[in-house]
Design a protein that fits this description.
single chain; about 575 residues; alpha/beta; Alpha-Beta Plaits; Rossmann fold; Serine Threonine Protein Phosphatase 5, Tetratricopeptide repeat; 4 domains; eight-stranded mixed sheet; six-stranded mixed sheet; 23 helices; about 55% helix; globular
């Protein structure tokens, strides 16, 4: 075995199993024709060597990144033309990933991280698109380089460090491109080097480490693209005009901060700024005793990540409210839709559905809006708002699965898939999926909260209480708070702690007054405590939101403990709810 530096291209057909299921013979024939007439000749013309084929996939080695990039662009450009007359849902499209890296040769085969990264980049690419590593992007022709967009650092499976990723945005007019919308509508964030205010040069490494850790952790989040360290650290030691820095870096938001040491104490400040206006979105200060410096660095990084994420989402939601709904891009549709879905009322659910479906139309194949639409299906099924409850439950699971398939590294898509699996009563799959989300982003509060919800429904009330409380500490203003509170209430009810359950239900009703489940929970709590007047008042509010409610509606609660659920149903009967 020998080592060498190579340009590696990994390609794969999008939706191969689905296309084969719909038309096996036709799909194989078209794939063969594309290989013989386009793909293989393009590889040969660019001096490439097909290392191996894997069903619908290819691994190709090139002597240079320039050859690999030219070949990839030629294939994707021609493919959009060759399949233009085929119905959208039947088109053959390929994803391509390109990397420059060290490979190990084993006969005709090549192995190693250089190959693995190319395969992960292919998984990040959109249907009909190309993703390229940062070190490969630096070496291609400047004109071609300009057709790529920086996605920042991305964490990928089985690769220890995040990778800088560049996405090809197509040179074709939008009307003929295979992807109808550029999902770069998603905003980007730049983390500037933290200022060392101590006058102690030795603290530089701590300040730089803070910024680097934040870049790494924020790159795991699905909300934004993170500008690469090599770009943001060009501002180290310089006076920074935030508006200009945002413009130079192409960043919608800038996170900056400072570190000051006095004796054995550290003070870290951080602030998130809207680069277009210069307005502060969030700011905080952290004072710590300096014991193990790496423990302090980890703790503060976690605290900043947990605080920044919900503030960022809130800022994005506020921006969408100032825009005409007809002018919203795909990302903005999702943000405005989330503001509605968090309220959990029937009217808000209808508007959220419209916005999420619009996002999916604007960015087909990207996964944007799909996971959120699964939540709409859940509410329609759970509350009986749809004409076919069982069909809505099936649509919930199918839509959530499609979102996770579109991006297996999106912790939000995985989190909502876990919710769908939970309400399908597949507790083991739900826990496995939520653990995948947390492996990608350990500080992702929605995933932590859903993990607590799974514990609550799986008859682990003590674990549910501690886990949901952890999510609340991570993100005390999170839009998913009502959902967490519903699960936390179920845990307290399981523990027969009706005082805590009642106090929690009151808080939850103030946060989401349009949510029927919270009113129902409050009514049961007050009934269990013997306060019949308060119970009747809560039930009246519940019936105002759900005029046709019955006891049987509650049987859709995914409780593993039958006794727990029957106790809840019995309380509803005693309150006078019809069977």
């Amino acid at each position: 075995m020998q080592r060498r530096l190579s340009a590696i291209l990994a390609a794969d057909m999008v939706g191969y199993s689905r296309l084969m299921g719909a038309d096996e013979a036709g799909t194989l024939e078209r794939h063969r024709r594309h290989r013989n007439e386009l793909i293989d000749p393009a590889i040969k013309a660019s001096n490439g060597r097909i290392v191996k084929t894997m069903g619908d996939g290819l691994l190709v080695e090139f002597p240079s990144v320039v050859d690999a990039a030219n070949c990839a662009v030629a294939i994707q450009t021609a493919m959009s033309e060759r399949e233009a007359d085929i119905p959208e849902d039947a088109r053959i499209r390929y994803r391509i990933g390109i990397n420059l890296g060290d490979v190990i040769t084993d006969g005709d085969d090549i192995l190693g991280d250089g190959v693995n990264i190319a395969a992960r980049l292919e998984g990040l690419a959109e249907p009909g698109g190309i993703c390229m590593s940062g070190w490969a992007h630096q070496l291609i022709d400047p004109k071609l380089r300009n057709s790529f967009q920086n996605l920042g650092l991305q964490s990928v499976k089985n690769i220890e460090k995040p990778i800088e990723v560049w996405k090809w945005t197509s040179l074709l007019p939008r009307s003929t491109a295979s992807i109808s919308t550029d999902v770069s509508d998603k905003p980007s964030i730049a983390i500037l080097p933290f200022d060392n205010m101590s006058g102690d040069p030795e603290q530089d490494f701590f300040a730089d480490g803070m910024a680097e850790d934040l870049i790494t952790e924020l790159s795991r989040m699905p909300w934004f693209y993170v500008i690469a360290r090599n770009s943001s650290f060009t501002y180290k030691g310089r006076a920074v005009d935030i508006k200009q820095a945002g413009k130079d870096l192409g960043a919608a938001y800038v996170l900056e901060g400072s570190v000051r040491k006095a004796g054995n104490r550290l003070r870290i400040t951080a602030q998130l700024i809207d680069a277009s206006s210069g307005a502060h979105v969030w700011a905080d200060r952290y004072d710590r005793e300096l014991a193990d410096i790496f423990d302090v660095q980890d703790e503060i990084t976690r605290a900043i990540i947990a605080a920044v994420t919900p503030e960022f989402i809130s800022a994005e939601v506020r921006k969408t409210r100032r825009k005409d709904s007809s002018q919203l891009n795909a990302w903005e549709c999702v943000m405005r839709g989330r503001a509605h879905i968090w309220k959990m009322s029937r009217e808000d659910g209808l508007e959220a559905r419209r916005l999420f479906q619009k996002a999916m139309e604007l960015a087909p194949g990207s996964g944007l809006g799909a996971a959120d639409l699964a939540l709409v299906h859940l509410y329609e099924a759970f509350y009986g708002w749809s004409s076919d409850r069982q069909q809505s439950f099936k649509a919930m699971l199918a839509t959530a699965q499609s979102a996770a398939d579109a991006d297996e590294n999106d912790p939000m898509a995985l989190t909502i898939l876990a919710v769908a699996q939970l309400f399908s009563r597949d507790f083991d799959s739900a826990m496995e999926t939520i653990d995948r989300a947390l492996a990608i982003s350990p500080q992702f509060a929605p995933a932590v909260g859903v993990r607590g919800s799974i514990f609550a429904c799986a008859d682990e009330p003590d674990l549910a209480v501690s886990t949901v409380k952890q999510a609340v500490r991570l993100s005390p203003q999170d839009g998913f708070m009502p959902f967490w509170y519903m699960a936390l209430w179920w845990a307290y009810h399981g523990l027969h702690d009706y005082e805590e359950a009642a106090a929690l239900a009151r808080r939850a009703c103030r946060i989401a007054p349009g949510n029927p489940s919270l009113r129902r929970q409050l009514a049961v709590s007050m009934h269990m405590l013997g306060d019949q007047e308060a119970a009747d008042n809560a039930l009246t509010e519940y019936l105002r939101l759900m005029p046709s409610a019955t006891v049987s509606d509650a049987r859709h609660i995914p409780s593993k403990n039958a006794e727990h659920l029957e106790r809840f149903l019995a309380a509803l009967r005693e309150l006078g709810l019809p069977e």
